[in-house]
Design goal:
This protein is an alpha/beta fold and about 260 residues long. It is built from 13 helices and 5 strands. The longest helix is centred in the N-terminal third of the chain and has 28 residues.
């Protein structure tokens, strides 16, 4: 007689996991063999699992990853691009996030930098860290507009609040005075408080020239590079490797002259 009112109370309190576990346990043939402690333990386990899963889904939705399905388990270590399995899996444990350290991924276009960054972003969400993904060229555009319409403080706060900020495609062009200022504001607010993951085609050794102002470059790189782990991807574009082979002359002739 108490089953339905109890379930209703669980739903009212937002205990959907416990309610689902209650129903499943009640339908078991051996339900009466379980003690009250066992019932309660199983119900709490389900509630914790459901809440954790929901929290990860919410974090991933807020992260807005470019490749939302990318994950550590799907990393292709067989591709000849110099990606070390042991060091990558060590980074996946997330100790660098707890220590508020950074991660820099560099390599030629098509070597999988953005996908790998998103895989680390998804892993960070699994480890209960808030994540935000942005492309650097678009970010500078948004920051410039935000200064004009009054959103600048809120946007900077959003960028500095994320426990892992992914800055994708850094270094596509030399920075302007305003872009240097914006980048410094972000890295200064995050330094030793949060972690930043940066991807770039340009090697770290050339970042100083890209920033273009020696004093500001020193200040920015000091806050990014010196406490950063690095992954340098090598080899040709993986897009080319996965592309379909070109048709032969004979096959082209067959298409043009069926």
């Amino acid at each position: 007689m108490l089953t339905n009112p109890t379930l209703d109370q669980m739903q009212t309190l937002g205990l959907a996991g416990m309610a689902a576990a209650w129903r499943e346990l009640a339908e078991r043939n051996n339900a009466n063999e379980l003690s009250r402690d066992e019932w309660l333990g199983l119900m709490l386990d389900r509630e914790v699992a459901i809440r954790a899963d929901k929290r990860v889904r919410n974090r991933l939705a807020s992260a807005r990853l470019r490749f939302p399905e990318a994950c550590i388990e799907d990393i292709d270590f067989a591709a000849p691009r110099g990606l070390d399995r042991r060091s990558t899996m060590a980074l996946a444990q997330g100790e660098w996030l707890k220590a508020h350290e950074n991660l820099i991924v560099t390599g030629q276009t098509g070597t999988g930098k953005s996908w790998l960054a998103c895989a680390f972003g998804r892993q960070a969400a699994r480890l209960d860290h808030s994540v935000l993904y942005v492309r650097v060229p678009r970010l500078f555009e948004d920051l410039a507009l935000a200064r004009l319409d009054g959103r600048f403080p809120r946007l900077i706060d959003k960028l500095t609040r994320a426990q892992l900020l992914i800055l994708d495609d850094f270094g596509t062009h030399s920075l302007t005075d305003q872009q240097r200022f914006h980048l410094f504001e972000i890295v200064e607010e995050r330094y030793r408080r949060k972690s930043t993951l940066i991807t770039a085609q340009v090697p770290v050794a050339r970042w100083h020239d890209l920033i273009a102002d020696p004093t500001v470059a020193d200040a920015i790189l000091d806050r990014i590079v010196h406490n950063a782990h690095r992954i340098v991807l090598q080899g040709d574009s993986m897009r080319k490797q996965k592309a379909a082979p070109l048709l032969t002359g004979t096959e082209n002739g067959e298409i043009n002259h069926p």
